């Protein structure tokens, strides 16, 4: 029997007014060797899993901003352990990824090698999508300075640009030992980002039980308000009118997963087990 556990947590909605804004980071204002970058008010951390990745600014005109050469990008030129793997992660806002450009080559920067690229989107450590691209890579400098477009609106025939994540992980395999990323186009998502500590205000304004549940919920509210139920990937699933006093609803039709109930007075995190 499936059940749902409810945790009442902080009512602060960090990004509720951060409506979807598309931005392209070309890294031109970032410092050489930095392991983070800031774009559209959001700080991203560059996480090195295998090999060392940071901002590269020592080789002018070796990047690609999507239309012309530029000077700075993320790469692993300081350490080329294999298979190269890194993440772009933020804890301040959720985001979606549209596209980015990648230089993928052998250690001597030869583009004419065979390899693959795995792109993974994660939210709170949970994989939301993963795909491996095995062909269609640029094999010469050509018109894009050697960079291949990785388009998440059509990656292996699937659209991943509408999936909310907090980390994009990229792993190169095969002959790809040197990896560079530029022109990172992303969307600041308008979905809620919740605090991690329980607040007395949210306890007072709304309580939810039983905990766990197989679907039926009782919501006791101090005041009348509107409420919305979101899935973990940020999709609005249901709108509710919460009245002062006791309210009875059911989420028995929802699959197992993590859900959020957002109200004007507080937020509750729903964990199905």
UniProtKB/TrEMBL annotation:
Residues 208-273 form the Secretion system C-terminal sorting domain. Residues 1-20 form the signal peptide. InterPro entries: Secre_tail (IPR026444). Keywords: Signal. Pfam families: Por_Secre_tail. NCBIfam families: Por_Secre_tail (TIGR04183). This is Secretion protein. It comes from Chryseobacterium lactis.
């Amino acid at each position: 029997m499936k059940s749902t556990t409810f945790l009442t947590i902080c009512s602060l909605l960090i990004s509720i007014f951060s409506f979807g804004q598309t931005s392209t980071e070309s890294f031109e204002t970032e410092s050489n060797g930095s392991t983070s970058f800031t774009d559209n008010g959001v700080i991203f951390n560059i996480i090195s899993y295998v090999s060392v990745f940071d901002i590269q600014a020592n080789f002018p005109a070796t990047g690609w901003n999507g239309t012309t050469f530029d000077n700075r990008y993320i790469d692993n030129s300081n350490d080329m352990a294999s298979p190269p793997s890194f993440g772009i992660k933020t804890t301040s806002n959720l985001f979606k990824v549209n596209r980015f450009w990648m230089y993928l080559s052998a250690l001597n920067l030869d583009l004419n090698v065979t390899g693959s690229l795995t792109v993974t989107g994660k939210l709170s450590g949970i994989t939301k999508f993963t795909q491996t691209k095995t062909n269609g890579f640029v094999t010469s400098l050509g018109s894009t300075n050697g960079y291949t477009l990785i388009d998440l609106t059509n990656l292996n025939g699937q659209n991943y640009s509408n999936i909310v994540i907090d980390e994009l992980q990229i792993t190169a395999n095969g002959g790809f030992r040197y990896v560079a990323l530029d022109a990172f186009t992303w969307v600041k998502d308008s979905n809620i980002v919740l605090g991690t500590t329980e607040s007395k205000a949210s306890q007072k304004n709304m309580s939810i039980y039983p905990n766990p549940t197989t679907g039926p919920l009782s919501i006791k509210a101090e005041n009348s308000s509107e409420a919305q139920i979101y899935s973990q990937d940020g999709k609005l699933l249901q709108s509710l009118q919460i009245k002062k006093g006791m309210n009875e609803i059911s989420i028995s039709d929802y699959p197992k997963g993590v859900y959020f109930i957002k109200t004007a007075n507080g937020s509750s995190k729903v964990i199905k087990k």
